[in-house]
Amino acid sequence: MIIREMSHADCVALLAKSWVGRLACCKENVPYVVPIQFAYVDNRIVSFSLPGQKIDWMRANPRVCIQIDDIADKHRWKCLLVNGVFKEQVRDEQRDRAWAALKTDNDWWEPGSFKPGPQAIASERNHVFYAVDIDTMTGREAFDG
Ligand SMILES: Cc1cc2nc3c(=O)[nH]c(=O)nc-3n(C[C@H](O)[C@H](O)[C@H](O)COP(=O)(O)OP(=O)(O)OC[C@H]3O[C@@H](n4cnc5c(N)ncnc54)[C@H](O)[C@@H]3O)c2cc1C
Predict the structure, then answer these.
(1) pLDDT the model gives residue 87
(2) What distances in angstroms separate CA 17 from CA 3, 28, 67, 76, one per listed residue?
(3) DSSP 77
(4) Across residues 33-56, what is the average pLDDT?
(5) How far is 4 from 43, CA to CA, in rounded Å?
């Protein structure tokens, strides 16, 4: 097996075709990682969430890391690590842009809209749109050789 660094263009291509990543945030030296669905647009990762632990933690400490991969098998895979800064999208035009980026996927809203237990009625929901502005990104890929 051979491992090599991915070019920036290959990293961007993988980001653009991926829809799920693992978002890591940290508060008071305690790490927290959850899977999220996202869209990639203009050097940003955009996602959607209900209020909860990850949103509280990213509001407290906006520095995050997101891991994305494309694994064929143990010897053929691609893996990206993205470091960036959480930016809550609060203005209407920001939320509209996030919506437009996400809606290219069917059912884009579902994974971020449900939690265990009774569901809130629609008018009580307080969805959060957020972006992660990418600071650095590295990719590695493995292949047989
Ligand atoms: C494929 C996939 C796509 C997803 N896409 C999104 C998305 O786009 N947006 C989104 O908001 N959520 C998404 N989720 C759900 C997400 O992973 C979290 O479960 C959810 O967002 C709740 O996170 P929270 O920090 O608000 O947790 P809270 O509801 O505040 O709960 C906090 C506690 O619950 C536990 N917990 C939370 N989530 C999980 C989990 N996934 N597994 C095990 N324990 C957990 C933790 O121990 C944590 O301490 C996705 C999940 C999957 C599997």
Answers:
(1) 98
(2) 21, 34, 14, 17
(3) E
(4) 96
(5) 23
Positive or negative, the Cα torsion across 42, 48, 53, 59?
A: positive
What's the CA gap between 13 and 29, in Å, rounded?
33
8 Å CB contact between 82 and 134: yes
Name the residue at shortest CA distance from atom 32 of ligand 1: 53
Site to probe by mutation for ligand 1, drawn from 19, 22, 36, 58 as the one with most ligand atoms within 8 Å of Cβ, is 36
The model scores a pTM over 0.90 = yes
Q: Which amino acid, one-letter code, is at 13?
A: A
Backbone dihedral angles phi then psi of residue 8, each to the nearest 5 degrees: -60, -40
How sure is the predictor about 112, in pLDDT bands with cuts at 50, 70 and 90? Answer: confident
Tell whether ligand 1 has an atom less than 6 A from the beta carbon of residue 31.
no
